[in-house]
Amino acid sequence: MRALVVGGAGFIGSHLCDALLKEGNHVVCIDNFSLGTKKNIEHLEKNSRFKVYETDATELSGLCRVFAEERPDYVFHLAANSDIQASGSKPEVEYKNTYTTTFQILSCMREHGVKKLFFASTSAVYGDKRDVLLDEDTAGLAPISYYGAAKLGSEALISAFSYMNDMEALIFRFPNVIGPRLTHGVVFDFINKLRKDPKHLEILGDGRQTKPYIYVADLVDAIMRFKDTRQPGVTLYNVGAEGETGVTRIADIVCEEMGLDHVRYSYTGGEGGWKGDVPRFRYCTDKIHAAGWSAKLTSDEAVQRTVRNNI
Amino acid sequence: MRALVVGGAGFIGSHLCDALLKEGNHVVCIDNFSLGTKKNIEHLEKNSRFKVYETDATELSGLCRVFAEERPDYVFHLAANSDIQASGSKPEVEYKNTYTTTFQILSCMREHGVKKLFFASTSAVYGDKRDVLLDEDTAGLAPISYYGAAKLGSEALISAFSYMNDMEALIFRFPNVIGPRLTHGVVFDFINKLRKDPKHLEILGDGRQTKPYIYVADLVDAIMRFKDTRQPGVTLYNVGAEGETGVTRIADIVCEEMGLDHVRYSYTGGEGGWKGDVPRFRYCTDKIHAAGWSAKLTSDEAVQRTVRNNI
User: Which of residues 81-100 of B touch A (CB under 8 A)?
Assistant: First the structure.
């Protein structure tokens, strides 16, 4: 197939390009290189089945030119602002990079008759429902971050576009994704802070924030496994790993893997790491388990493996 | 209070301006006069507590100027494309007029510290769940129209902005609203068609589409009653009238009220009036009833009253 990966030079997107190429597909990567990097895809440059466009997916005309030229039969949409903390003071970033990208991609698909879509959604669409085991049928979705809002809005667009244009869309809602090529987030931050000061670690919040972390290779494995839904409309899965990992536990794992003893932790206090952060949640992945898939690494193992890969 | 009504020259917005002025408030109306009309508000022109700006709420700078000048303490957001059938072939209309208006209004509120919002949402956010009694906790919202998608995306934005900026937002999801100053929809169409040809009426679909219709005066009464939520975050209600009215029943009521006998009906066929139309749904209004409010007119009475007011 001819796959178009929007955000293909990003953290998850670049791993997906690797997997799609490995399966024998032609892969066209679009990225504006704001968060994605050329380094993430430089090892693919010589692959004749791989092509890159430096294109901003918020701009319809440029995006449509790629569709016209490349005639993809599957679009993997991973273009978004992925730094929730950063957009807390700039909601317009989510309007543009998370919502508008989705609208323009769907508009191009509609225009060019492309029927298959994968969309990277997020646990942030649920909002702060800390005492609920979150499954795909959880009601009352109430995002507390601009990122979660733009992703939920994107899901709504996909629902309407797929109905109106007979598309088949696969939506994965995933929690924190970690692994090689990570660009931000708690694991990334702890490694960098401890490199600068191996005796002291400042931890945002009270350290009791507890979330599931999924290893990027597991996530990409799930995308590859389920990408051909053969179902009209939207097919939705929560995709996560077993268990959750607390922030202080992450600090312990990072210190251990970096061989650091007696590191002093200090906490900035408060429940969440920042405003808009959901401090803890639990994720029900029964649906995707019932479909025969589960993550190889637990949440704790994902953290451990990520530290090993990034130090 | 100083109320800012965005979309204040529209069908529902102009009735809301009337009610807010009657209660003694200062009312600033913003409209781009694309669907709203000067005729809808001409009777208010001499009221010293009423002011109109011809401003497009999709443009941040113009909108912010009005906020800076007028310093509203409550925003009523009724600016949207309201013609779902028309936007079926132009999704960009919903992106711009329904979603972007919401984003820009929220951005201005955030910038200027305005904390109170009313938002006009819709039953279209639920999608086609014809066998479910739709209540506020119904899960799996899956809009089938671009309009419903843009409204659900707007609700998601309001959820995040209200959390991040300590706003109080009242959201009403309402079904078809009818009454004086109506600009489109089945009742409006039937009257116009029968004026042109009093012997024959073409009905879109199979005539069995059945929905609740609420009279605009009832809806505005509910807005006025619940506008001061005094609850942080989002307060959400389904707002509807008793019962549902089938399309063939609407035809009968219109013919009867227009004094027409022996009108021949022909049906274009199919379940919905057009693609993206939810052919039938039932609406649970228990929550707002429990809060002490119910519509004065049933769905059938709303249709009857609307025909009398429009012929």
Answer: 88, 91-92, 95, 99-100
